[in-house]
Predict the 3D structure of the following.
Amino acid sequence: MNNKYPELFKRYKQNPILTAADWTYPINSVFNPGATLLQDGTTLLMCRVENRNGQSHLCAARSLNGVDNWVIDKKPTLVPDPKNFPEEIWGIEDPRITWIPELKKYAVVYTAYTRDGPGVALAFTEDFHFFKRYGIIMQPDDKDAALLPHRVGDYWALIHRPTSSQRSHIWISYSPDLRHWGSHKLILEARKGGWWDANRIGLSPPPIETPEGWLMIYHGVKQNAAGCIYRLGLALFDLKKPELCIKRSNEWIFGPEEPYEKDGDVNKVVFPCGYTLASDGDTINIYYGAADMSIALATSSIKELLKWLENQK
Ligand code: BMA
């Protein structure tokens, strides 16, 4: 008898791969990293680092194999700049990185923690040393955002998660110039009641372009008497019309199971903000924050994920 759910994402045996103890300066915790492969194949993580004042900045870690021997910047890589960008007053968090071929730059979309809650901020970089900030592009409350890598028709597209009522859903907005955003559309709704993704959902890593469509790994939050549980599910969107949801999973595919995911500053959280693809174009590595404490790695196959989603009732 097989009474086990399929294990689509395989955890790296030596998880967590990065913790506060690895850092080059004193920190409380490191989690929720954005990820990308640099031109030379190096894996770069933009890690959210929390200081003992409770606020976050971003710090880059680089590794040749994406698994170990991380070289961590000696000091914070991108720090809040509230003098020029007042919306960064309480820190910057949860970056999502997208390589934009048309601009030959990486877009880093991150949460700016404003006095009135989280907002979506955008910066560009070529090297993860120097950054050009565009400032806030979606006002609070809004977070969990990423740019698609190329225009859809004439327009850039941003996936984000505004909070406007008791429930928070995933939206898409379009822009001719990356500064002015409009044509807002709701693309994925939080479910209700006892669902694993009731009331609050959000984009996790940037959507993945596949021949089948844009594959989205999203997080759902279940609130129960003991608190919140952050888990991951899948949804697929039309390549030419990314506001069209083709398919959505009913079940979650990945949730907190290991001690480092269940026990931390915030218990029961798996929260990836980035992925990399291996040279076979199919093996996907997700880098995720575990319990708002450390960074862990899990690996899957895009084909397997799509097949599983296809077979979801
Ligand atoms: C979300 C975000 C994440 C965090 C998670 C669990 O709302 O703020 O940064 O990892 O909550 O605390």
Summary: Residues 32, 93-94, 230, 266, 269, 271, 289, 292 surround beta-D-mannopyranose (CB under 6 Å). Residues 22-310 form a domain with the Tachylectin-2; Chain A fold (CATH 2.115.10.20). The mean pLDDT is 97.
